[in-house]
Amino acid sequence: MQYSILLLFLILTALSALVFTFVFISSKKVGISGQGLSNPLQKRFWFLLILFVVLGIFASVTIPRSPYFLFADEVPARVVHVAARQFAFLLSDKAIDPENPEGKDSIEFLANELVEFRVTSLDVNHGFAIYNPSNRLIAQTQAMPGYVNRLRWKFKEPGKYTILCLEFCGMAHQVMRSSFTVK
Amino acid sequence: MESIKLRKITSLWILIVLVLFIVNIVLGILMRLNQGEIIHQSPITFYANMTTHGLTQIGIWFVAGMAAVNYLLQRYVKTSYSANVVAMVLTVIGILMLWSSTYIGKFHAGWTFLYPLPLRIMWAKWATPMFFGSILVMGVGWLTWSVSMMTQLLKKYPLTRALAWQHFKKNPSTQTPPFILITMITLIGIITCLLGAVLLLAMYSAEYFSNGTFVNDALLMKNLTFFFGHTIANEMLYLGLAVIYELFPEVGGRPKWKTTWYVALAWNCTLVFILTAFFHHLYMDFVQPVGFQIVGQIASYMASLPAAGVTVFSVLVAVYRTPIKWSLTNLLFFIGVAGWVIGGLGAVIDVTITNNFVLHNTLWVPAHFHTYNALGNVLFSLAFFHWFSIQFTGGIHKEKFTKLILTLLLIGGIGFLLAFYIGGAESIPRRYSNYPAEFPMAAPLAAGAALFATIYLIAILIFFFNISKRCLNVLFSPS
Fold it and tell me: Which pTM was predicted?
């Protein structure tokens, strides 16, 4: 998905750069009698209207696919509790006691089963980002002290998934990680 | 006519901003070199650099925009020299406090200082209050400056006129210059978000001095942090746009732009959207009410409409098939607007919640904000600096190295930014002092980015040496 986004961005960037270059060259080439754009007000109106409609369509298509609504009507097959703290993740099938936090050494899921992660933090804000076996970011939520974020996901591809912290949390942020396996 | 004192203090602002900018680019290059495994810093040093780089950059380009607006505002109303001086003194003290907290005290919670990280002391104990003190000192200076400018504006233009509401009727009896309209809208936004910062600091200090008897709510604190941080970072862009509205036609030898009903409407709408767009920083906090998340996406989209539809279109129309006197000033404005549009495209992609799900806190984030800063807002301010510096050369001036400066800025800027965008597409996390083995492209991209950033730095150095002499002449001239 990320490379499709990059491609879209590069196409839009190239178009914008072309427009600016074309406009700049038109100014250099025109003589002293250049009159500028005819009917700019009318053209601006259409430009704004098209932009408004494009963004409106983009919003109405993308908002219903937001992660808050993912698998909302289904019952999760597995619930995993996640407690993040400087600089490790604890994962457990049982609720984690903040006074005596403990996690499981290894977690496994079946491919295509619906998993709900209940993510919180025992100290500062952390990120809970899931990378697939090809090291591509596929899903994430934040781990915030005092709150539980619920992230639902179905893992299609078997293999080892890496969890990385994506919210800066202090001097060892870059080594805060965990993993699980999908069979 | 502007006073000589204003001329001198504006020169001093320009010199301070450029010197700090050069130091700050070096900090950025050091960070990318470390990530590229060319040099080896401890993670604490890296994160201290990161904290310093972020807040210094926000601070200097904010004051650069304010200094430019203050200088041009003198054409319409008398501004307070004392407020300008207070802002300068407090900004310099604030920056020194910030740097002492990060380099002596080793404070390294990031410029967004997300609660409760600054209170989990992993540095000298005094560094946390020193860091917050630096924000407080700078904030007081900026609030004084903003309120002073707004007061002076309101003395001449009643609020409804400053906001150009009379343009909503047919044939308005009075005109509000676009510069006044945008300045007013921006000042309202700045004062509002600075008041948000006051609340944030009050809540931090309540917890800091409570000895554990009072604990803040993390979600509320995060909302407040981004209400302040996101808004101030965007308002500084609008300061640059105000300058474009005032100077772009003038420098190109064209008639001044006028406020029309849709310019007035667009900017009035921007005031609302920009104050609610910050919600997009909390998309990945699923406990935030979903309504706020959707408002975040729609407000972020809508905030781009007036800006793109009015400002960008105005600039393009002003240039298209029109004879323009091109100089370094309006070339920097023109390229800056293009950079701002492209950074805006990266931002619109990122504020779409479904995209943010896989881009949030990856290198895509620094990619887009560095685009509309390094190749957008910074160029707006450099354009003003250049224009200002040649005002007092007796009308005879031919800038040397214009092509060289622009070429280096573009090559350096584009190469440096592209490494960030590719890094975002590769899912490489941001704010990592060193990259894990899962990302084999991360280190080479960072090293390449450092090289291109050095090219950008060379352009800034040439620009600086070109205009610093003229600014020093203004500063030390007897009249």
Answer: 0.95
